[in-house]
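Usage example:
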Amino acid sequence: MAAVLEARGLSKSFGGLQAVVDIDFSVAQGEVLGIAGPNGSGKSTLFNILTKVPFAADRGAVLLDGRPIQRLRAHEIARLGVARTFQRESVFPSLSAVDNVLLAAEGARRGNFAANLAAAEQALDLAGFPATLHNMVAGQLPVFLRKLVMIASALALQPRVLLLDEPASSLTPQEIERIRDLIAKLVGEGMTILLIEHVLPLLTAVSDRLMVLDHGTLIASGLPADVIANPAVIEAYLGR
Ligand code: ADP
Ligand code: MG
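Running the assembly step on the lines above writes:
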């Protein structure tokens, strides 16, 4: 299958710290690529340099449908269909749920206000956010619904490739189940997903392939069952 998103030799250092080291991967349309690794192994930095939010790679290429995008600006990459969520809480607590998503839509889409508002409402619906709570102030929502607002903010860009950074952290098992259903629904609509997740049952259940980073380096990749049984992967987790 043709790659939708591909990375070649991606690297990023912070001073003397090599956060991402010469990473190659490719992901096909409708595929879920899981990304695991201990804390500080470079997972979020990889999302940052793929989307240029907030910074670019030092070296390497990113290709979308075979076209290099690493020289484009962050909003151009988003418009081409690569959207991401953040590991840290990124909702504006004093804005309503729909205004949070609208802000994301206005940041990345060309549409007028009405079109952007429609996209925001559609994105909340797609994320499974309750229709009755669109106007609720985000800061008053429970963590699960704030997470859905974050995901909807990415979905409002109508992405082809969605990068999810630890969507299941601090959720209950029932809520994690709903994240799993949501990912399955998005994939069913043809979306391609990169998923960083510490909740291994979720990661192994939804990922077609898994890659594991350690100290910024790709130490294993392949089918989830093979990867989590890989001695180098077990060592990376136990060694911390
Ligand atoms: P992960 O998401 O796998 O937990 P990160 O990508 O957040 O890891 O971080 C990888 C390494 O890069 C860590 O050592 C982290 O401290 C460092 N790092 C990440 N972002 C920055 C930054 N903006 N400035 C300096 N160091 C950073
Ligand atoms: Mg991270």
